[in-house]
């Protein structure tokens, strides 16, 4: 693990991320059922410890790959996901959220766009959504796009009434993709990554 994570120019990070994804994909069916036998229980605990080591020594790795990792961990595994979601790079000093009158958009740390190394757009390409979505985000889409979007996120062959009738991974990819493209577009247009309520991406979300 240190060899991959301490490699020059972070060359080993992508390989280590893949290995972690294999681990979580293997564990996911056991965790979803919350049915941990001795072996899967040990593996779960080992994974938890591994994340705690990463949290301590490589927070940048966890924060830059959080998207892919959280996507692979079932939503019911709150502890595993919280470890990853609480990560932030060592170079950032978090503001005290209990301070009164704090204006979050004026905090310098809110400015830089955080690096996201997971390939969050790949899910959209396989769903053939990307082209239509890009057109829509550039204000060139067809008016019907937004109304059909919701149905495109449904899982095939799951009844509409089921609480699990949507493809969560696809929704996560879509939200991330819209967010990243909208910020990039706003920055290209005005030089600022400001929130514009009429931006097609904001409307879609
Ligand atoms: C959800 O969408 C992703 C990306 O398009 C796809 O790879 C995955 O198979 C879908 N999941 C289900 C359960 O259909």
From TrEMBL:
InterPro entries: CCR4-Not_Not1_C, Not1
Gene Ontology BP terms: negative regulation of translation; nuclear-transcribed mRNA catabolic process, deadenylation-dependent decay
Record keywords, A-Z: Signal
GO annotations of cellular component type: CCR4-NOT core complex; P-body
Domain spans labelled CCR4-Not complex component Not1 C-terminal: 1-203
GO molecular function, one term: molecular adaptor activity
Signal sequence extent: 1-34
Pfam families membership: Not1
Entry keyword annotation includes Ribonucleoprotein: no
Name assigned to this protein: CCR4-Not complex component
